[in-house]
Amino acid sequence: MIGFDDVLLRLRGLERRELVRWVENRWVLPEQQGEVWVFHEVDVARVELIFDIRRDFAIDDEAMGLVLGLLDQVYQLRRQMHRLCDAIATQPSEVQDAIRRALPRKASGE
Fold first, then answer.
1. Under a CB-based contact definition with an 8 Å cutoff, are residues 31 and 38 in contact?
2. Which of 41, 31, 38, 29 lies closest to 68 in space, CA to CA?
3. H-helix or E-strand containing 31?
């Protein structure tokens, strides 16, 4: 876990008030320990992602909420797909083969 000031040191150019706003907007969900916020590595990665998106694409707060919501959905779908693939891999080979046959063929360009 990493403290608030350490997050700011990692990301030169990130202002204190900006990170506070991100937490208040619930874009980042650090753990509250007493009066201070403590960031797990996943929180720091999300801060870095937000910082990069804002810097590279100049996205405002309203659009950032939308972008983060869409990214969260993509990550959730990826986790679900991995669980589905793991479940399929535990099935007998005839079930796996039937699933492969039931899947549509890839279109050209995919």
1. yes
2. 29
3. strand 31-33
pLDDT string in tens for the chain (110-residue length): 999 999 999 999 999 999 999 999 999 999 999 989 999 999 999 999 999 999 999 899 999 999 999 999 999 999 999 999 999 999 999 999 999 999 888 766 55
CA 56, CA 80: separation in Å to the nearest integer? 29
State how far the Cα of 65 lies from the Cα of 21, in Å rounded to an integer.
12
Inter-helix orientation angle 61-89/41-57, to 10°:
130
Amino acid at 63: A
Q: Which residue has the tokens 């900006």?
A: 18
**Which pTM was predicted?**
0.78
